[in-house]
């Protein structure tokens, strides 16, 4: 990535970057929806198998895996843990919403 040469170039580059971020935001939402649907299906499978919906050991493993991936990518693992805590909350609600 190069630094824009002029203020006009900088404005154009900013617009391009914002558009790309917006596209990523839409993709993230699509992925969250897909994850929630998979969690709902997992909840169905748990019910049929007679397993509890909550699995704290699995949740801890998911959190640690995400934190490790964040560290390896050079981004703050604390914030990634927060994101995954929210994803797990969405998953729980998806599983609980099904009778």
First-residue to last-residue Cα separation: 51 Å
Order of helices and strands: HHH
Cα shape? elongated
Total number of distinct structural domains = 1
Helix/strand-derived category reads mainly alpha
- SS strand fraction: under 5%
Q: Which stretches are poorly predicted, pLDDT < 50 over at least 5 residues?
A: none
SS elements, strand count: 0
Write the CATH fold name: Chorismate Mutase Domain, subunit A
CATH class, anyone? Mainly Alpha
Query: What do the pLDDT scores average to?
Result: 95
What radius of gyration results from the CA coordinates?
Answer: 19 Å
Tally of separate helices: 3
Binned, the helix content reads over 70%
Largest sheet: none
CATH superfamily: Chorismate mutase
CATH architecture: Up-down Bundle
Task: Tell me what you see in this structure.
The protein has three helices and no strands. By secondary structure, the protein is mostly helical. The protein has one domain (7-97): Chorismate Mutase Domain, subunit A, CATH 1.20.59.10. Helix 1 (7-49) packs across helix 3. The radius of gyration is 19 Å and the shape is elongated. The relative contact order is 0.12. The mean pLDDT is 95.
Concise description?
The protein is mainly α.
């Amino acid at each position: 990535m190069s630094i824009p040469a002029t203020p006009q170039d900088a404005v154009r580059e900013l617009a391009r970057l914002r558009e790309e971020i917006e596209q990523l935001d839409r993709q993230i939402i699509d992925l969250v929806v897909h994850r929630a649907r998979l969690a709902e299906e997992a909840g169905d499978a748990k019910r049929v198998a007679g397993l509890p919906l909550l699995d704290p050991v699995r949740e801890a493993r998911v959190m640690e895996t995400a934190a490790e991936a964040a560290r390896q990518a050079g981004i703050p693992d604390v914030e990634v843990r927060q994101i995954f805590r929210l994803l797990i909350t969405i998953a729980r609600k998806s599983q609980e919403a099904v009778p």
